[in-house]
Structures
1.
Amino acid sequence: MTETGESVGVRDQGRAPRGPLWWGRRRSAVLDAVLALVSGVECAVQGVPFAREAGVPVGLSVGLGFLAGLTLVLRRRWPIAVVLVAIAVTPAEMGFVLGTVSLYTLAASELPRRIIALLAGMQALGTLIVTLVSVRQDLAPEDYGPGSLRWFVPVVSLLLVLGVTAPPVLLGLYVGARRRLVESLRERADGLERELSLLAERAEERAEWARNEERTRIAREMHDVVAHRVSLMVVHAAALQAVALKDPEKASRNAALIGDMGRQALTELRTMLGVLRAHESKPGAVAAAGGGGVERPLAKVAEAAEAAAASAGRGGARAVGDGSRGGSAEREEPGPCLRELEALVGQSRAAGMAVEFSVEGEVRSYAGRVEQTAYRVVQEALTNVHKHAGGARTRVRLAHREGEVAVLVENEAPAEGVRDAGLPSGGNGLVGMRERVTALGGGFVSGPTDGGGFRVSAVIPDRGRGR
């Protein structure tokens, strides 16, 4: 089946009702039926003089002419066949509407240009021959010289042929090109709409992924801030209970340590909630509605700890984004750093843990996220020792290497008769440490040792230039 240019324009008109058979719309079917009826009547009328001149029965000539004109109803389905019918009836000097409309339809179709040119040329040649013969018969040779007839008849015939065949062909070519352009633009617009829809879906997926990542990050930060200090508070509270009556002075020191750790935990928690509230008005940031509800009950307690926060000299704010920009030794995100590991180890020693701390390599600064991640790994590892291996000897090692920093926390098996601290554990600490390290492209290993203890090791690459 050959599809015409007019049918192409309605190929995907799903919004309009479909017409019968091969027509894309009902009004197209009605138009073709009217044109076919007009063409049939025209050919039938023109068949009468042809029958008289050719000596054939008038009824046969009129009937054949009417049927030839009716073939125009097939112009959208078989344009080549309709043009051939128009060429066939040209010697009978009938089918002006048939020839004109069929040439227009042929030129506007999706057929190759060479076929259009061939059929249009055949139609023009047939019309030219018939016109030449007709003009010669109509002219009176005795009124003109032989030289005049030699150029007059061909010129007149050629002008008549061009006037009949050129306009429908040119108009058909223009309409077909315009229709193809509109269809191409429509397809391009549909493609762009699909791409925009796909981009919107991907943007929504990325936004959901970012929200989930932010929730995970906040949960990890809350765990790191609270779990370590609360664990130490529980250990000191147990020691305070044991020595409250025997050694009041030691009990007083333990009580002071518990108070200091509680204030530090509240200060860090208040700072983090403040960061969430600061992000409240930023698009794409995690809403601070839940954080504000927690912050208000803690406001008075946190205000009392501002002095301790000022003396500590660090704000625990966390900026969302990648803080490992190369070429900078300053920490992009304020928070704990490797210089504070000594104080962290000192807190565990004050709680009664035997901790050995060693530093290897040339001490230098790293990117902010690198130092914070290393600090949090050591902090969480010490917290796990307090929870599950109270009193066990522990070794903390910090190694400065070329382009990376490594930390190791390893504890021995707990002493006989030492009970577990009874602190809840959901297994989120090791998961959080692994997530932090792998997010920076590092390696994380944890597991029991042959001697019954536990080892946590992390190697974190430094994307910037240490100094």
2.
Amino acid sequence: MKELVEIIAKSLVDSPEMVVVTETTDADTITIELKVAPEDMGKVIGKQGRIAKSIRTVVKAAASKGDKKVIVDIK
């Protein structure tokens, strides 16, 4: 999942070298934290959060085979 979020985020931003993705696994959840440069935050979130919602939807679809819930946190 980490690689998927990283590829999507790097394709959206102007500074792909500033993209940092960390993955934390608990008993029943996987938390993916995405950090981008402040000037690229709007590109990752999108108008009314549409791009952020799309990223979360793609990650949840990719994780549907597993039993764990996936949370994408954009900072």
3.
Amino acid sequence: MTETTSLPIGRRRFIQAMMLVAGSGALAGLLPENGYAEGTRNTDTVRLGWGRGGLPLIARQRGEFEKRLADQDIKVEWVGPFPNHAPSLQAVVGGSADFGFWGSTTPALAAIIAGSPLVFTQFNVYSPRTTAIIVRKDSGINNVKELVGKKVAVNRSGLGEFLLVAALEKHGVDRNTVELVYLNPPDASPAFGQGRVDAWSMWTPAVDIAREQYDAKNIFFEGTDLDFLIDYSSLVTLRSFATDNSALVHAVIAAYRQEGEWINNNVLEAETIAQREGQYSDAVRDHLASYRRVNYFYEADDPAFLADFQKAADWLAERAILPQRVKVADHVVRV
């Protein structure tokens, strides 16, 4: 890594973070000394999962990502869209995709604990964080403590669940006094709008759309109310695929880093691409653009990052969001 960056997320320290600088000179630092030639590659096609937001969506819609890989005789096939990370991981394990879609590390760890031979090849952290717990303005709920006796929609072992658990813990609310309703985002949104759940813990852009669509408000916002980062975006594949195609994996990572740098420097254009896919209002798009989120990338074996990731995994296991402890360093590869 070429520089050290601290992220503005409370007291957690992120050491050796790097925003990739566009251009071949920057990419040279990401490659083995002799380029891709020393790596393995047993396919000329890579199948990439994508969802309705984030890096893969922008990469898929712009087309520059595919051109970069085409220059290395690699064909891209997009698999999706996936509503969240769990079905993306299932596609990888089931053999219909080679990579997930830069989703949450928590369901990936849950799948690994369950026996899936998945590995992390790269990590991404965006700042500021925008996941939130929302309630309708007419709900009578004004803070986290007032969730006692209420139903809250979350995605199991994902961002939604961990954020709710952290919020309840911070405000001294017994987790057993709140009913967690496990719903994937496409089902959680109408349930929230129809009042079948009282609150929803969700990430961007769905939470931003719901705030406008259902006249909702935040009662807990990750970027300002959470004192630590416990979940990260990750690029996941099978261990066998990473071993058999290390050069291809490296090429995919490098192309995604370039895409992340483009997003950092073209915020409104990136949000407009996401808006076309999500079909939401200009007001939501402009609100998302106002965050001016920045992507930071970490190598899979970065010691400082892995130390933080291990603390996060332990925190999740201690609270039974993950079923048991897991040594994260055993499930990363650097190509």
